[in-house]
Amino acid sequence: MKMFASYLFFLTLVLTSLKFSNSASIPCGVSILDNSTNTDFHHRIHNGTEARPYQWPWLAYIDLKLPATLRRTVTSRCTGTIVSPHYILTAAHCLQGIKDTQKQKVIVGSVDITSSEAKSVGVKRIVFHKQWDLQTISNDIGLIELSDSLNYTDSIREVCLSRKIVAEDHLSAQVVSIGWGLTERGKEPNILQQGSAIIAEPALCRNEYQQYNVTQQGDSGGPVLFRSSESKSWFELGILSYGSKDSERWDVYARVSHYCDWIAENSNNEVQCQT
User: Fold this and answer.
1) What is the mean pLDDT of residues 18-30?
2) Could you name the domain of life of the organism this protein comes from (predicted)?
């Protein structure tokens, strides 16, 4: 896992490219909006801003139907990331307790999950890391295999994953955190929320490691994104696992680069990290 201090901002956007319809022709981590310019700062997603249409086309809303006995302890509202036409990457704690995949669904294709443009896709299979541990919050990573293949468009695309782009090499860099978590008024939003974060030294969080909350308010499983200065593509560095009890201070993410082999193995080698 990697620890990140959370200091959020909203992003101004510029239209940069034309529409695509063929999944094979669309590179990962590129939207039709350029999200590189920031003009203001906010604290965490629940004090952030609403995402604009087409801004983050790899984001997925995970709507889970859990057994009544689990509903009080396990989240039924999470965020995930499209990593291939058949797979969504998310947190393990979002998936625990699920028995019947036929009752589950994932919503893609719109920042507004109530929009007519939002596409609901069924779930074929879920898998989370065999060494996922709720007590230590270790190996908090999971995959959802979709029942139908996604057709990539302006509003549905995949994020990039990398073995080499790691947080340790970009300390103090700004990254973007995204999800359908609670707003600052404690409301469950229908529209995707966004904000920025600063990659922090682990020592800044280590003393507070035991004072965490497992995030169960919609942001769980969502990505922290880093934009490559070379390719201009967005890479998912981490998967939101939990945050400090002082929610303005820091969040902790499962480090994606550490799990590239696991992701490939559990997606039948469909999802590959760049090398």
Assistant:
1) 67
2) Eukaryota
